[in-house]
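B., you asked whether I could sanity-check this one before it goes into the benchmark set. Here's the sequence:
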Amino acid sequence: MGKGSRLIFILVPLGLTLATLVCLGLVWGAGWSHKTLQSFYFLKADTTQINLNPSSSNTFANALLQDFFNTHRDSGQLADYYQIDLTSYCTGKEGKSIDFCSKPVSNFWFDPTKVWGLDSGLEQLFPKEFHDGLKTYQTVAHWMFVAYMVAFWLTVGELVIGLFATFSRIISLLTSLVAGVASVFVFAASLTATILYSTLLGTINTALKPYNIKGNLGKSMYATTWLAVAFSLAAGFFWLFSICCCSPHSQGRKEGKGRWPKRGRMGTGLMAERTPYTYERVESPFVANREPAAHEMTPLETGQTGHAGAYEPYRHV
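And here's what the prediction gave me:
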């Protein structure tokens, strides 16, 4: 197999790398516009059936929250659901599509107390486990954002370097190293997102259960991010395979071409060369079709004498 076969083996990991990049792009692009990727989100908080009169002994706190939610719902500031993405959040009304998405920002984390306008002191009315969960979420969300960002740009680098891998095994080795590191970050980011929002989901469904605020995970987002993991791992395997397979230099040579010398008379790959100052037998000009005598088969020794006019059937070369 030559360069043509190697090109086929390079196109496979290139396609897998491109598929990884597309999946990561979908994760990044979710929440950038309220018109696209509406089913892509990590977590969705549903406030449609919010209970403004939860059963609690703190009637004063309940009265404050009830007044707050009534005011915001009447003014349209309280949405029916909130979708949390990697860099922003989106809102919408029940039975309708998304009508608003926040501006994408780095190190994004969804702060419900700020979004709902509870940061003026009313946030203390929520249970302690809810605030503890938000602090943990804020810290881990920062690491998750960094992991996705590194994974995305490493995958871009893997794709660019891989375009030249067909010319050299060294480039294949370099691409394999980049692909390995990229796979680690894609896996770490996906695992972090899964664990983080699964934990946050439990916190919301437990701490906010008295208020009938429910949450659920976005299947499309998690399917996409784990597909990115599968594609990235597969691409790394094929890049590694391309190092030891289908060298552009070791195959495709025909006999007598390339660097290999032609075969000599003895069937070897080396050309037989005459050493200097030797003799080569020639035919006698006097006797046609006569086999040479025994004494004619060897060159004359140094100092050997013979009668005048003797014929030496060898020529000096």
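One thing to flag: Strands lie at 43-46, 81-84, 89-92, 98-101, 214-217, 279-281, 314-316. Otherwise nothing jumped out at me.
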